[in-house]
Amino acid sequence: MYFDFGKLPPNECYKLFVSTITPRPIAWVVSQSGEGTLNAAPFSFFNAFAADPPVIGIGIGSHKRGRPKDTRRNIEESRQFVVNLVSEENATAMNVTAIDFDYGVNELDEAGLTLLPSTLIHPPRIAESPVAFECELIQSIELGEHSSLILGRVLAMHLRDDAVIDPDHHYVDTPSLKLIGRMHGAGWYARTSDLFKMDRIPLADWNQDRPR
């Protein structure tokens, strides 16, 4: 089937996107307003964009015309935020923070989450999350009337102790984190426990072994 995105309404393009670009990692973002009010919300239009410098990107839409989401507003005001990753154990709490609460409601309290202080920035991190990145805003890029791309530089990372195999060489027991990803449609998620390994092929091996 062929779909011309230039001829489709945005909500129909969105449905095709989220039904096929899967699984998507979840950025569980904690931000803070200029008055000190905390906000937590999950976003699945998210990924790592660069390693040097370490940059992550989050696509954030709007509630409606002229009303940006609290996370975007807070980040653009404070220029700081924490990206927590979501494990199977805290999926339910993450889902609570996705509720469209009124501005100023503390989603962290509603979800019964515990906060820990960050080291280099003001917004705290979520204690229940196995991974947290302290970030500062590099740029907020307007993508259209309703969306923006938040680019953040990672200043520091917190990783659950038992998931660190070798702190000197920075080896991580990734499967033990039991991270989840966003899938298609309403309410579907994926576990990352079903894995397979496929090593990268050196060019010399490919040239030697490929069928002639």
Notable traits:
about 210 residues; alpha+beta; 3-stranded antiparallel beta sheet; 6 helices; about 20% helix; globular
Brief synopsis:
With 212 residues, the chain is of the alpha+beta class. The protein is built from 6 helices and 16 strands.
What does this structure look like?
This protein has 212 residues and is an alpha+beta fold. 20% of the residues lie in helices and 36% in strands. It has helices at residues 10-20, 70-78, 91-97, 107-110, 174-177, 203-209; strands spanning 24-25, 27-32, 38-43, 46-51, 54-60, 62-64, 67-68, 80-84, 115-116, 125-126, 131-142, 148-159, 164-166, 171-172, 180-182, 189-191. It has a 7-stranded antiparallel sheet with strand order 3-2-8-11-12-5-4. A 3-stranded antiparallel sheet has the order 1-15-16, with no helix packed on it. A two-stranded antiparallel ribbon has the order 6-7. The chain is globular, with a radius of gyration of 19 Å.
* N/C terminus separation: 35 Å
Question: Which word captures the global form?
Answer: globular
> What is the H-and-E element order?
HEEEEEEEHEHHEEEEEEHEEH
Number of helices: 6
Oligomer: single chain
Approximately how much helix is present in the residues? Answer: 10-25%
Average residue pLDDT = 93
User: Could you give the order of strands across the largest sheet?
Assistant: 3-2-8-11-12-5-4
Strand content: 35-45%
